[in-house]
Write a structure and sequence with these properties.
heterodimer; A: alpha/beta; 6-stranded parallel sheet; 5-stranded parallel sheet; B: mainly alpha
């Protein structure tokens, strides 16, 4: 029982226990009305109506099976009980297969992580009202990350057939209203034909660029009532045809090629660029043609980290550039400006006065007013609306034509210099990794490289929360050269994303035969740790390595900044931010949910054997967790 | 709008700080042990690591490559995002103890000496 009360359950859950602990139904202030008590604690009355042999939900399953959905994640809720029953019995629990989740936020975040690896959406079923409320943060993350999720929610629309009392609490006039600001489209079908068309449309729109979550609300009666043969004969399941991605305007692309070929110091910034396996080779081809450095922001795996033209993180190149090509930029203003978190919030452009910016992206095709994930306004000098991955072949052709008319070896010299700088940067990174190598608590770089010794010959994938220190060090030290090397950004940095997104991505990696590594922050896992049980229950192999600094460390540093700014000392910054007294035992938490757990480990010398043991579990197809007590960052 | 501090504004108090520290040094040596307690109490570890070795949020400061006057000046008036430590939070003598602790720490190992980090 999650957000939903156990309406049809004979076994009372925690919520029912709370009710029965209240004063007796017969008297006293706060007494629970007898019908309410019965609804929560007693088995439902025998159904005396005729048996329904072909519920409407069976047809809904027929529709869903046309959409190439492998999984549907859900925390159970009575408003979609009809559909769930049809999925597991009529649909034989296959394509889609039901995944049991312990929180709606986990369901959606699993779907988010799954898409990052599988490249196709997962469906999610959520209870009306309370289930949608639980799911909302994860939906916002997916929306901000432009990731499609097919959300199906139940609802009891007809007041005449709602059971009292809780079904009234869990009914709503406009179920999608709460998440409409951060979903692409929604509908509440009132007939099965309406459902078929809206569900197929929802899938199509979710996948059309820019991708985003969509939501269909299913009336309970529509799911549960009989579908007569005569009515069914009239139903049609529409064909799904996905939209071809939009390509940038040909004239503008030719102009961009002229600018880039004529540049002395061009820089390519790849942000939310890569969508498919074709993206990386295309960008390598363009960068090598231009001998231009590429800054990969890491929101996707855009450019091989070991390529000599990879200069990610080098803001100095942005400052010196004369032409910048930004591919699907999430935050063009932030790319070209600096705002300091100091008193007065001073900011300025970091660009040279004569620098020009070209953007290719779809950001303006999906923008809403309320939530501010669209970032600060900034105009490129040449803004091309289109999918950059789809546009790059024509840009490459145009660049090749321009280059045919260019003499000299300036590009080759630029390339050689960049290769040297790439090598120097790599050496500096390794020196930085050596700092605190023997420290206890254990340094993030030590954790990452001890693990690397044992997985470097595997087909691996780093999944989960993108900004844990261990995740960042892995991206610096491991070769991120494949589209699935890591799962990129969370979208809106809503904490609680990491653990379930890792499980969802690991599910997709399992199906592809890959090893999944999750560098897991402690604070993130504490939001909804039940996803560990989901991983164990569904035999999803995943090595979770805790980055356990025993605190909400980012927030601790914010408090330090405020306290020192107010000249009050920072010795109390741990209040409200530290996760100590008591310390969480994550190994025991994992064990309690059927996951192999080991730790806490604070001696770096113990890492090697701990990794060996846990990897043996994961390679057998099960999840494992190692709790590593970590340096603060 | 941008409001950058001119370099001269940074250098001037630096010289004054150097003079005051020279006077303080004459009063007696700073203790690394008390400096370590300060390191933990005032939160240096949060960005620079429990041993001052440096993390993703702050550079290595143990041992510090800076002379004490410049170290103190940067504590009082950080150039970038580090929280400023005024004299009400860390007085000059405490800064000297903190510095003594940092200088007592061993320098970091080199990547070439660590098997997993060797090229």
């Amino acid at each position: 029982m999650g957000a939903s009360l156990g309406l049809a359950s004979g076994a009372p859950g925690a919520e029912a226990q709370r009710i029965t602990d209240a004063p007796a139904a017969s008297g006293g202030a706060g007494a629970i009305p007898a019908p309410n008590l019965a609804a929560e604690t007693q088995a439902p009355a025998a159904d005396t109506s005729a048996v329904i042999t072909r519920p409407g939900a069976d047809f809904m399953v027929d529709v869903l099976k046309t959409l190439d959905l492998d999984y549907v994640a859900a925390n159970p809720g009575s408003t979609f009980r009809g559909l769930q029953e049809s999925l597991i019995n009529y649909g034989h629990n296959a394509k889609p297969e039901c995944l049991t989740c312990c929180h709606e936020e986990s369901s959606v975040a699993m779907a988010h992580g799954y898409f990052k690896i599988a490249g196709k959406p997962m469906a999610v079923m959520v209870h009306s009202t309370v289930g949608v409320q639980h799911a909302s943060m994860a939906i916002y993350n997916a929306y901000a990350d432009r990731v499609p999720v097919i959300i199906i929610s139940g609802n009891a629309l007809d007041a005449n057939t709602r059971r009292v009392p809780v079904e009234w609490d869990h009914s709503v006039q406009d179920n999608a209203a709460m998440v409409r600001d951060y979903t692409k489209w929604d509908d509440t079908p009132v007939s099965l034909q309406h459902f078929a068309e809206s569900q197929v449309r929802a899938y199509k729109l979710a996948m059309a660029l820019p991708s985003a979550p969509v939501m269909i609300t299913l009336d309970m009666d529509l799911q549960e009532n009989e579908l007569s043969p005569a009515s069914e004969a009239l139903l049609r399941i529409p064909k799904l045809t996905l939209d071809q991605p939009p390509q940038g305007d040909a004239t503008a692309v030719r102009e961009a090629a002229k600018w880039l070929v004529g540049a002395d110091k061009p820089v390519i910034v790849a942000d939310r660029y890569a969508r498919t396996g074709q993206a990386m080779p295309l960008l390598v081809q363009l960068a090598e043609l231009l001998q231009a450095p590429v800054i990969d922001t890491g929101t996707r795996v855009n450019f091989p980290s070991s390529h000599p033209l990879n200069h990610s993180g080098r803001i100095d190149l942005i400052r010196e550039a004369d032409f910048i090509l930004a591919l699907e930029p999430v935050d063009l203003w932030g790319l070209t400006h600096e705002l300091k978190d100091l008193v007065g919030k001073p900011w300025d452009s970091i660009l040279a006065a004569s620098a020009k910016v070209i953007s290719i992206g779809t950001g303006d095709l999906l923008i809403k007013a309320n939530y501010q994930d669209f970032q600060r306004y900034s105009a490129a000098d040449l803004a091309i609306t289109g999918d950059p991955e789809t546009t790059l072949p024509s840009l490459i052709e145009a660049v090749q034509r321009e280059l045919a008319a260019v003499a000299g070896n300036a590009r080759a010299e630029r390339g050689r210099a960049l290769q040297t700088l790439h090598q120097h940067a790599r050496e500096r990174t390794h020196e930085a990794a050596a700092a605190g190598w023997d420290a206890s608590p254990i340094s993030a770089a030590r954790v990452v490289m001890e693990l690397w010794q044992q997985i470097q010959h595997d087909d691996w994938s780093v999944v989960g929360w993108p900004t844990s220190s261990t995740n960042i060090w892995a991206r610096r030290l491991w070769p991120m050269d494949k589209p699935y090397s890591h799962t990129g950004d969370s979208g809106a940095a809503g904490v609680g994303y990491g653990a379930p997104a890792a499980v969802g991505a690991a599910l997709a990696n399992r199906d592809a035969g890959r090893l999944s590594i999750n560098f897991q922050p402690d604070g993130d896992l504490l939001y909804a740790p039940g996803v560990l049980w989901t991983a164990a229950h569904h035999h999803i192999p995943l090595l979770t390595v805790m980055f356990n600094n025993r605190g909400y460390h980012q927030e601790l540093m914010h408090l330090q900044r405020m306290a020192n700014r107010h000249n009050r000392g920072i010795d109390r910054a741990g209040i409200g931010t530290a996760l100590r007294s008591p310390e969480v035992d994550f190994a025991k938490m994992a064990q309690s949910m059927g996951v192999y757990g080991e730790g806490p480990i604070s001696d770096p010398a113990q890492l090697r054997e701990a990794f060996r043991r846990s990897l043996a579990i994961v390679r057998r197809g099960e999840p494992a967790l190692i709790d590593v007590i970590s340096q603060p960052r | 709008m941008a409001a950058h501090k001119p370099w001269l504004q940074v250098l001037e108090p630096l010289l004054l700080s150097a003079l005051s520290l020279t006077a303080m040094a004459a009063a007696g040596p700073a203790e690394p042990a008390s400096g370590q307690a300060l390191f933990n109490a005032v939160g240096c570890w949060a960005c620079h690591g429990y041993g001052g070795q440096g993390t993703l949020s702050g550079p290595q400061i143990a041992p510090s490559a800076l002379p004490l006057p410049i170290f103190q000046q940067l504590l009082r008036h950080p150039a970038r995002l580090m929280p400023a430590y005024g004299a009400a939070v860390l007085n000059d003598a405490q800064v000297a103890s903190l510095y003594a602790y940092l200088q007592s720490r061993s320098p970091p190992r080199h990547a070439a000496d660590i098997v997993p980090l060797k090229p």
